[in-house]
Queue: 3 jobs
Job 1
Amino acid sequence: MKPLIPLLALLLALTPLSVVVAQAPPNEAERKVFLDFKARAEKGDAGAQVTLGRFYSMGQGVEKDDAAAVPWYRKAAEQNHPGAQFWLGSVYFNGRGVPKDMVEGAKWWLKAAEQNDTGGQYNIGMAYANGLGVPKDLVKSHAWCTVSAANNKPTTAILAKIEKQMTPEQLAEAARLAREITERLAKLKKN
């Protein structure tokens, strides 16, 4: 009977914590915040819609439900909310609440990146670096990672790895593209 105890301990140690410990139900205050955001989201407030999506994704104020988050991300993303575009890209890219679709994920990350969302910039840069959801393109990868780095996303080590794979001509083209993107984003901020 003693050999069974170490085996049981090993199985418990290898089991993810989320399987062993059930999520606690939301408390009254969390539920009230959730319902307040839901009311605003249902009226079309894009900021509230993306927040509601995050609440569903994290299980804050409501039971965790990735599939329920997606329509809220989409509603806000279609209103050009860059944060929602980033999260919608992420759920598609990783297959959380929707079938995995890296092409769809990269499409939404690019939309977010083009609106100066640093997460979108970084993720689309990495997608281009690895050819995931988009054709592999080191010039675009380097350009987006450069823009992301300028917006305080730590990409220095990643840029160095990408640069090792690039020709001097590609580096020059990436620098030109990064300047072009930065100028376009600066105009966006002014409007």
Note: Residues 109 and 123 are 7 Å apart (CA to CA).
Job 2
Amino acid sequence: MMMKFTALLAALLSMLTLPLTVSANTLYKCQGPDGRMTYTNQKTHQKCEIIAQDKPVSTFSSPPQRSAKQPTPADFPRVNDDQQKARDNDRRAILEQELANEQKNLDAARKELSEQENLIMPDERIAGGGVQGGKREARVQLFRDKVSLHERNIESIRREITKLK
């Protein structure tokens, strides 16, 4: 036991006394005997030069500088304010019509769901008068999904309407 400790201590001391010539923050560009260039953080050959020391090395270049916005050409088609307001009003009318239609579809889907939840099909019955819950739930889930779809559509249309000027 004592010999193992002594050997371990000797190994640690010898490692500490080795000269530390390589820094983890130093980057070398080395040319090997075959002429190939190697980039490393360890000086491996005689023909090595320091290319970066104590600086972060990044493989990403900085984003290109954006030039100032180009002015709109004079011959570019423009829409006057009255025409744009008319377009916005048309869009609002279309969205409100879609909202009304979607609300009608939601009401119909809810009514249909309510009917299906109260209905038990013959193939969903089991001997003794019980009901197979799995079959019924699978059938009714389709109607719940339909209601959910119409509710999401209404939310989306309302968001679009609030974005209008």
Note: Confidence is low (pLDDT under 50) at residues 19-23.
Job 3
Amino acid sequence: MQKIVIFGNSGSGKSTLAKKLSNKLNLNYLDLDTIAWQEVQPTVREILNISINQIEKFIFLSEKWVIEGCYTSLLTVVSQHCDLLIFLNPGIETCVKNCQLRPWEKHKYKSKKEQDDNLTMLINWVKEYETREDEFSLTEHQLFFNSFSGQKLELKSNQESLLIINLINNKKQNLMIY
């Protein structure tokens, strides 16, 4: 387990799990949010080929890695290189609670207040996960997960994510996924 992709709805725990796996397993970490949006205009999507080039560069320069995000267009590229795919699917209610408890994301917001001012919009977006018809939707994530032929896990609660971390903490780093 050297190349891990984690995906799911906003608030599903992607960043939390990815950072913990990165620290415990000494993996390079990439949050797709950092390359999916234009740096000079953070509300505008980056040109897809530019994001893909950045992913390919990261993968080329990293022997071991964990990559997380919700962008099916980018996940499709990343999944060609991973040996474990983790779909975090804890349900809307859990995602909303996780968003409400989320620490300040300095790479996305200039201040905690700016992040908190955006919380209502984020929660409304999270609640649309099951009905949206875009690359961020539950439907697209399920299709992506189901089409992946390698080792994969679907975790349906924060507790299941903690179980993975606890297994690693107990030095069972060679998880066998069926």
Note: Residues 103 and 112 are 8 Å apart (CA to CA).
